[in-house]
Amino acid sequence: xxxxDSQQSVATAKVPxxxxxxxxxxxxxxLVSEEAxxxxxxxxQIVRGDGWREAKxxxxxxxxxxxxxxxxxxxxxxxxxxxxxxxxxxxxxxTHYITCLGLxxxxxxxxxxxxxxxxxxxxxxxxxxxxISQPSARFTMGTPLAQRAADRLATLFADExxxxxxxxxxxx
Length: 172
Hints:
The protein has helices at residues 18-31, 34-46, 52-56, 59-69, 106-116, 144-160, 163-170, and strands at 74-81, 84-93, 96-99, 102-104, 126-129. The protein is of the alpha+beta class. The chain has one domain (18-170). Helix 2 packs antiparallel against helix 6 and helix 4 (59-69) packs across helix 6 (144-160). The termini are far apart.
């Protein structure tokens, strides 16, 4: 009797590669460094926030990532909370997103953004491509201080993380 070979379908959780996990740790280390904290305080004044959290979710972080990895590799994205916003900016690089807390994936992105913005409802929130050159009272890149902060943060990333290796790990 011929019986076809049957394969069992096994669901496995996606585990980030060691290279991706290492890149994420190094990226987060830059964000928590003393120099980045100083940049964050300056940016917080620009965005009229009360600390580094607002600075990291601002367009300054995305601009720094675009400078570090190259504009061709990064798509600026906005997180729109409850239909308004954007309340946070992120960078899409390859199949990953770089947020204020490190690397994220499509599967977890909206959930994690909603958790960061406590009032955000999953069903009413979205992430979409955003033009970061458009003026916004909270997230402007139109000042020399914002540009210097983004340039310095990009330099910190480049000093710690080789941009070519990061592009390969992120799938660009």
